[in-house]
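Trying the structure run again after the queue cleared.
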Amino acid sequence: MYTLNKVAINFPIFCVVILFIACHSGKAKEVSNGQPDSSATAKETHAEKESARPVHWTYSGEDGPEHWASLSPVYAACGQGHSQSPVDLGVSVTHGKINMELDYKTTSLNIAHNELVDDIIDNVHTIQITAQPGSILKLGDKVYHLKQLHFHTPSEHTLDGKHFPMEMHMVHQGDGGKLAVVGVLIEEGAANKNIAKIIPYLPNAPGESKHLADVHIELNLQIPANREAYHYTGSLTTPPCSENVEWLVLKEKLKFSAEQIKAFSSRMHNNSRPVQPLYDRKIVVDKLK
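Done. Tokens:
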């Protein structure tokens, strides 16, 4: 009797408790369904950040140029851009009158003995040389500072569909961050005495860099005497393929010997992006001073 009476007395209280738990659980579920869970949002935000990070890319296979745009949202311009580089330069061109001037100095392969600077490096995608401050390009009233030069084998730009054995890119940056690139097509011929200075010291493996205190390159000698250039607005030729880059590809070719070309191609292999559509862009022939 005592047990039965105790259960009977406590039964209403037991129901109230159960009802309270059920209601509270329902409200919790409503809140959960009505508002995003903060931890889930954090995970999504983290995932978005992860997906937007630059990722590994190559010049062939599943990570090659035709797939760059799908490798990361950061690389979207590689597939969606309408001002991409390189292009074929054999289209009909007009002649411009923009004032363009190059003032190139000597650069050391050990810039101010700064061990934080990779003076010459195989960065996996190309062989790159850091330029000592002081060399500039003027386009109209804008000044661009030479930052680095690097190489592609074969050439990225073509002329009437023809590739050249190599192409050199002199990359400049303006005060506002805008880029301008002087491209030099390289064909086989006599040995280039200026480039011969660095060939013995080229990196032998991806990621390798060197600092050479006694090696200097005359940057002015890397530019042919005839300074007429194909001028157009394009992009970086590597991911993220950023646009609004000023391109000047010199009409006159620079000559390297077969051995010199091989010294680069044997290390870089094929590191050229295919030619991109010109769309409605115009190529203008301008002359550098």
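The CA atoms of residues 133 and 146 lie 7 Å apart. Worth checking whether this holds up in the mutant runs.
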